[in-house]
């Protein structure tokens, strides 16, 4: 598409779709006009892919996920269609800067963190490799809350991404299913029938997902809850206007808002409704599509692969059994085996507090038939394994991990270490009974978003050096390995990093009024705030460093800017304390005239996908410092390594694999490994011992305790101090000394710029394996038995 054609298309949409003209148009109008113009280019490849998939009559993959953390869509589409240059030229010919227009788009934040972002990377890779697939989820009216800081404390407000016209979705009133809740189960003539007491309509909204070079496109189908009746006319006529609107409001509540990961008990009932709502709608849709092409439901596993992204859609097991057995009359045992042949399950965490359990009371009242089927499935499993030591139900609760495991033919972890720990801990008993079921699929990230579009400077350099093939064949990055020894390439690589840092520095100055020196090391920790991720270990090190610089202000310190980003679940009190501490420490340290040329701390509020795209390309050091054994994989860690940030990290999650691939000499390792963690926890008074052995740690904790960061309010952070001195379950104190040592090694290494750049280049060169294309191909061959159809789309 030429610049002129694109320009004309934009102007036509501005006029005919938005009803405005160039003199009156706002940035948002231009952005939407551009989006429509780009969307028009997606529709043909999208149709071609759908037709190719229908003609092939092969297997389709269905990715069921409560979360899709997509971020902005326009730039992704422009990049994948190869229209970046035309779009930029077209916009400037209209007097606009493309970047300004692209950044006007609100993030689609329909996810909490790693799990949701992984789903978004997978969708893009599924399209890039040409695998016929659908993503299924919920069209939340409000995504993840917006975060702001008031006096250093997190304040949440609702997010409103759908307020502006949404150019990417197509409403499908014709694709709708009625989803029931509650009611009675009755048997007659040997057939069991569930009669729900209430129901809502699930209506589909489709967003095309276009792969690299527009060769293939899939569909993300999100369900929106609508009432079965729009309003109660009798009540309206009686003058009860609020009452008349009630059925609609109640129904819509189901897709109103994304649940933030949380520890609170409230709203559990609505969450279970959300899970069943989107799972049931998706399964109905899948069966409808299957039956339009085939007639024998026993063939289902040959044509349908359903991936459960965590246990949130685990009710798919009993629901599919119900559809096959109750509705379509397949014998129960056969229905269970058939369902299992379709289903597979990904586990994303071993943290006990995050493993889903539903009380049988709640489940029985909302999903009575499903509860009875779970009992039958459990009984069938017990009968097949008389020596089994586990059950799906315990203390009046259904354990969704066990249910998902028993209803899946494959169960996967998300990194090598995590998968080993799954076998050894939560699923040890089930693993013994089904030794073939668990397998590893190490996570990946899409290079189109996380390198090509987030880091155009690095991308240009890579393409100049080795051609464009790396974009969908990321292991080709190995070809730049020899260039680590090429002084000219190192300089170009350093200049690209430097320019990214300058751009971030001006952003921080403009948006936050913070001034940072691009010469300093940019040390970045961005992820959800959680005790196991140990942002407090990072801030403790900052305090100790600040104290040491203060003792010796004329020392030869390596300047650093520590940047934090991330949200805490609204009900997670301790995580919110950590946020408050980081902001309070930042305030004191940043205003210290003696130390501030060596150490600054910044914590921009409302970290999201778009902010990650700014921060990662500008980072020198990636903080991946979770307690070993607790971070299932991490995916941010991969994005940093690809963009040439060196990692300081523990042997946790995919860090282990990153270190193996980039080389131990190009990775700053510290801390206990997972086995040492377990042993350390058994030592009485481990935290107190660690503090006693390290005066720096003791002094940093004393400063917090004495109110150095809470003037006039000693004891403000006692919850943190006493946690770290006593129970310290996540072993912050025990790992501090080695973390400090590794950080000082980082300081020394950063001063040798040649050596540092060599290491950075090797990180980029050797991280190509972390492309989500590799992950998806591996799911296709090892779990789904699905074939790519790139050649068949003919685009
Ligand atoms: C949150 C707040 C309070 C208590 C528990 C949680 C919580 C912890 C983990 C909720 C959900 C959790 O796991 C879900 C999840 O997002 N897991 C992440 O999945 C990513 C993709 O596989 C991995 O890269 C991350 O390591 C993993 O944490």
Automatic annotation (TrEMBL):
Where can this protein be found?
Cytoplasm
Listed GO CC annotations:
cytoplasm
The main location is cytoplasm
Keyword field contains Cytoplasm: yes
Reaction catalysed by this chain?
A: [(1->4)-alpha-D-glucosyl](n) + phosphate = [(1->4)-alpha-D-glucosyl](n-1) + alpha-D-glucose 1-phosphate
| Alphabetized Pfam families for the sequence | Phosphorylase (PF00343)
Cofactor(s) named in the record: pyridoxal 5'-phosphate
Q: Which residues carry this modification: N6-(pyridoxal phosphate)lysine?
A: 639
- Its EC number is 2.4.1.1
Q: Signal peptide span per the entry?
A: none
Molecular function GO labels: glycogen phosphorylase activity; pyridoxal phosphate binding
**Entry superkingdom:** Bacteria
Among the record's GO biological process terms, what is one? glycogen catabolic process
Alphabetized UniProt keyword annotations = Allosteric enzyme, Carbohydrate metabolism, Cytoplasm, Glycosyltransferase, Pyridoxal phosphate, Transferase
Recorded family membership? Belongs to the glycogen phosphorylase family.
Function, as annotated: Phosphorylase is an important allosteric enzyme in carbohydrate metabolism. Enzymes from different sources differ in their regulatory mechanisms and in their natural substrates. However, all known phosphorylases share catalytic and structural properties.
Q: What is this protein called?
A: Alpha-1,4 glucan phosphorylase
The organism's lineage is:
Bacteria, Pseudomonadati, Pseudomonadota, Alphaproteobacteria, Rhodobacterales
